[in-house]
Structure formats: C-alpha cells, structure tokens
Amino acid sequence: MFAVYAKEANTDDPLASLVVGERPEPEVPAGWVRVSVKAASLNMHDLWTLRGVGIKQEQFPMILGCDGAGVLDDGTEVVIHSVINDDSWHGDDTLDPKRTLLTEKHQGTFADYVVVPARNVLPKPAGLSFAEASTMGTAWLTAYRMLFVKSGLRPGQTMLVQGASGGVATALVQLGRAAGMRVWVTGRSEDKRALAVELGAHEAFEPGSRLPERVDAVFETVGKATWSHSVKSLKPGGVIVVSGSTSGPDASAELQRVFFLQLRVIGSTMGTRDELANLLSYVELAGIRPRIGDELPFTEAGRGFTNMLKGATAGKIVFAH
Ligand SMILES: NC(=O)c1ccc[n+]([C@@H]2O[C@H](COP(=O)([O-])OP(=O)(O)OC[C@H]3O[C@@H](n4cnc5c(N)ncnc54)[C@H](OP(=O)(O)O)[C@@H]3O)[C@@H](O)[C@H]2O)c1
C-alpha cells in the first residue's frame, strides 16, 4: 500500500530518511480495527522520529503519522486516539509505563490503512471535515489536556501561549478564547502574530517582550528559547504547563523565581481517550474549526515536512488522500 515512512534514524538530516513509497498492508490483530485513512496531520513528533528520538533502531522502517481520521471497514467515520496502552493497564491512559504513541512501536497513519486497538477510535464529529478531524488526536488533544486538565485556569484569567503558528499553539489559542480566557501569545514574525489575533488571541507580542501585566498561566512547547520569559511572565503562584521543548531542553530553570514566587511547573503529555471524546464534543458544541495552514496530498508530504522544519507553519499541516 501507499505509505510515507522513515527508513532509518538520521539525526542531522531528518528529511534524508523520509520515503514516499510502498509498505506492506497491515494485518488486523484480534481486538483491533482497520482504518482507511482519509487525512492525517503532521506533528513535530514525526520529525523527532526521523531523527531517531523516542524510537528504537529496530523499529525502522516506520510509517509516520500519529493522528488521523478515516473510515472503518463497516463504514463508520472515526478519529484516531494514538496512545496505545498495554492490555493490562487500567487508569489514566497517559500514565501507563508501557504506553506507546503510534509510530513509536506500531505503524502510523500516513498510509492507505492503519490498524489500532478497537478502543482507539472515536466517532468523527459530523461538523468537522476529515482534514479538520485529523488534527484532534495529537496537537489538539495535547492542548486540551494542558489547558483544561492541567492548568487549573478559569474563564476570565490570563494565559500566555509561547509560539503563535504551530499546531499545539494555535489549538491553545482557539480553545482558550472559546472558553473565555484572556489569551496572549508570542510569535516570531508579524504574520504569525497576526494569525494568532485572527484565531482569537487578545494580543500578540514579540518573543521575550515585557507584557502589560503578569499572567496566571503560561503554555510552553518551545523550551530553551522562551523558558526564562515564561517564568518571568508569571504572577506569584502562577503555573507553567509544559509539553514540549522544540528549541532545546536545556533551559535555565530560573530556580530562584520558581521557589520565591511559589510557581508551579506541570508536565503534560497527549491526553486520554475520554479527554479526546470531551474535546470532540467541545469543538462541536462551541463550533470551533481547527485552523489548517496547509492541506497537501500525501504524495507531497515532503513539502509539509520541509515547511515544519523551517518553522513555516500557519496552523496545522494536513495530508489527505
Ligand atoms: N508532549 C506531548 O504529548 C506533545 C504533543 C504534541 C506536541 N508536543 C511538542 O510540542 C512542540 C510543538 O509541536 P507542534 O507539532 O505544535 O510543532 P509546530 O506546529 O512545528 O510548532 C512549533 C511552534 O514552536 C514555536 N517556536 C517559537 N520559538 C521557536 C524556536 N526558537 N524554535 C522553534 N520553534 C519555536 C513556533 O512559534 P512561531 O509561531 O512563533 O514560529 C510554533 O508555535 C514540539 O516540541 C512537540 O514535540 C508534545
């Protein structure tokens, strides 16, 4: 079948490992279902996989794509939840020590077909296209958990999103605005800041800017490049929710501020199946349409990867059949 995959790990030149070609059709284990993929979105995780981060050498070649929307063999339209748990696990899906994301152990969604455990598909909201629905399973779910499960933020409070145009960042802006937060954003160019305002941010600032006042919560996926600003932007008792470190993990911890102002730093990863169900319902009830910056045919996946690597994003990059 058609597939976009990583042939091996390449730390320095991840795009050299990307292949748009053919892979064997998957077998369907008992208790799993086959999804005919209609659309899937690109996440930074796919670039990490090409670099060999978070994947064992023996797992290559690996079909990329850790979210998606499509159709089951019986015609049901579904959204994929890509956190795959061990059969014996009960409790928060994301805390299972044996959990994997699609593309870490099991093949991903950038293909004609993907197989997942039956519990890992949820009904696609009728109001979302396949392309829009495909963005829900990773970037949007991550943003949902950061904002509504981890931050403790209440409507009327102020949130700062570091980064304006990325998948998680745009989801945070759209979700936060719809929930009644005051949404502030930093973005690296005027275009990106204008996009954030168009998506609902009340104000967008240059990275590192002094803000009009300190905020209740900061949402971090950038890491090294923004961490110090994140700590300095918080009110006493405020919270940073962090789910990524795109620019590097070795941030100065600003420990004196953390303890003196009694700040909280909370990690967040993906989200549970129930949280994805709640997200899908919320998006439908609030009439939110996730921002897609670029929709490309799967055959042109290389262009999407190149743009993400360059930082040329304007919302989610989506591939469709
Ligand atoms: N833990 C989890 O479950 C989870 C899930 C999803 C994503 N993540 C992580 O979250 C991060 C973002 O993922 P994504 O898929 O949203 O990626 P993306 O779409 O490529 O977005 C990258 C974001 O980083 C921002 N950024 C700001 N300064 C940057 C700098 N100096 N270098 C690079 N980027 C900078 C960009 O802001 P501008 O708009 O200003 O360019 C943009 O908003 C990644 O590290 C990813 O691994 C984690």
What does this protein look like?
The protein has 321 residues and is α/β, with parallel strands linked by helices. It has two domains: 2-135 and 290-320, Quinone Oxidoreductase, Chain A, domain 1, CATH 3.90.180.10; 139-267, 3-Layer(aba) Sandwich (Rossmann fold). Helix content is 26%, strand content 27%. The protein has helices at 44-51, 130-134, 136-150, 167-178, 190-198, 227-232, 255-260, 273-286, 301-310, and strands at residues 2-6, 18-22, 32-42, 62-63, 69-72, 77-80, 83-84, 100-101, 113-117, 121-123, 158-162, 182-186, 203-205, 215-220, 234-242, 264-267, 292-297, 316-320. The strands form four sheets. Strands 3, 5, 6, 9, 10, 17 and 18 form a seven-stranded mixed beta sheet that branches. The model has no long low-confidence stretch (mean pLDDT 97). Bound molecules: NADP nicotinamide-adenine-dinucleotide phosphate. The site of NADP nicotinamide-adenine-dinucleotide phosphate has 29 residues, from helix 1, helix 3 and helix 4.
The percent of residues in helical segments reads: 25-40%
**Total domains:** 2
Bound molecules: NADP nicotinamide-adenine-dinucleotide phosphate
Cα shape = globular
Q: Give the helix/strand class.
A: alpha/beta
| DSSP E strands, number | 18
Give average pLDDT, whole number.
97
Low-confidence stretches: none
Rg over C-alpha atoms, rounded to the nearest angstrom = 19 Å
Task: Please give the largest β-sheet.
Answer: 7 strands, mixed
SSE pattern, N- to C-terminal: EEEHEEEEEEEHHEHEHEEHEHEHEHE
